[in-house]
Design goal:
29% of the residues lie in helices and 25% in strands. The chain has six helices and nine strands, in the order βββαβαβαβαβαβαβ. Strands 5-4-3-6-7-9-8 form a seven-stranded mixed sheet. The structure holds S-adenosylmethionine. The site of S-adenosylmethionine has 21 residues, from strand 4, helix 3 and helix 6. Residues 30-33, 53-56, 59, 81-83, 101-104, 116, 173-176 line the site of S-adenosylmethionine (SAM).
């Protein structure tokens, strides 16, 4: 059993928990919240495995019920810490696309250290993504987007691409729907891991 910094138990630190054997393509939704994005993704790509995780258990219970109700068989839902998954648990070069949609922006300077995207996080993405794999980041917070462009976009093992070849713009997360209803603009950034990078 693994314990994260926040004391969250990971019952099975074995990647086989995801049964990826039957799925050639794996996508992660980090901090999935209520999971509308994960559900949309799993429905859009039924042949892929979508792994949704969040540290808040309450939202995940409802997401699991929804997946059952809507008969979605290619979605796995885990209560776990994204940093632990990317940092330790997921094997090297195992994931095709990683989504971080509307993460908490931590706008105050003194709280910036709580943001998920950092140079350490960039290293974790590079470890876990397959060559040619994609990191997708979305936020309505311009400052956070700028910082992601700098941290990820300026890493020579990533290449910023204008959009992803697998069109997903119609799939909205719960937070994105709220921001759009309030007239806010949500930016979507895509970065491709260079095929040669390891
Ligand atoms: C602002 S919400 C966005 C939820 C969802 N992505 C959406 O767009 O509707 C951010 C989510 O990230 C989760 N979160 C924050 N830090 C996390 C971490 N280290 N690992 C996993 N989830 C995390 C929070 O619990 C919260 O549900």
């Amino acid at each position: 059993m693994y314990l994260s910094k926040k004391g969250i138990e990971i019952i099975n630190p074995d990647y086989s928990v995801f049964s990826i054997g039957d799925f050639g393509v794996v996508e992660l939704d980090i901090g999935c919240g209520k999971g509308n994005f994960s559900v949309g993704l799993a429905k859009r790509f039924p042949e892929r495995l979508v792994v949704a995780f969040d540290i808040m258990p309450g939202r995940l219970g409802n997401l699991a019920k929804r997946a059952e109700r809507e008969n979605i068989s290619n979605l796995r839902i885990l209560r776990t810490d994204g940093m632990l998954m990317l940092g330790r648990i997921l094997p090297d070069s195992s994931v095709d696309r990683i989504h971080l949609v509307c993460p908490d922006p931590w706008p105050k300077g003194k709280h910036r250290c709580h943001r998920l995207v950092s140079s350490e996080f960039c290293g974790m993405l590079l470890r876990v993504l397959k060559g040619g794999g994609i990191f997708h980041f979305a936020s309505d917070d311009d400052a956070y987007c700028l910082s992601v462009k700098k941290i990820i976009g300026m890493n020579c093992d990533f290449r910023k691409i204008s959009s992803d070849e697998n069109e997903i713009s119609e799939i909205k997360s719960d937070f994105e729907m709220v921001w759009l209803s309030q007239g806010r603009v949500v930016q979507h950034l895509f970065f491709e891991k260079q095929k040669k990078a390891n």
